[in-house]
Design a protein that fits this description.
Elements lengths: L6 H28 L5 H30 L3 H24 L7 H47 L6
Helix pairs in contact: 1-2, 1-4, 2-3, 3-4
Amino acid sequence: CEILSSLPLQMSLYFNVYFFPFWWLITVAILYLKYPVLSDYYKFILVTIMILVSLTELIRLYLGYVGNLLEKVPELAGFWLLTLLPQLPVILFLLFNEGLKIHSLERAVHIVFAAFLSFQVIVAFFTLKRMVNTLATRFRLTEFHRLEEQRPGPGA
């Protein structure tokens, strides 16, 4: 019985769990400091992004842990999709949009968070691919053995 979970992905998730509160505190503190100088639409966008990222990150990390450790394909696929679609583009928006008046500390924590997300997208893809292929092979072998048992013998 081969272990399909990924150690690099699990290590990345572990460090991400400890990094996310630090990222959140830095981002909220800097948002509080620069809030008066931002335009109204950037104020709305940043508050919305903080709420979206906070909720999505909790769900994403839970799905990553369950999907990787328990080798569950649907949970790992959900983790991969939540990493690829809402999280990575939002962090890249926060990192590269100069209209947000980005502080150097803010840029540093966004770079680390973007590196976590990029690494997790790549590693989760290959882990998911390996899990799906192995589970499909197990299913085919089980079906083959079931059909062999049901087939009548040569003398019957």
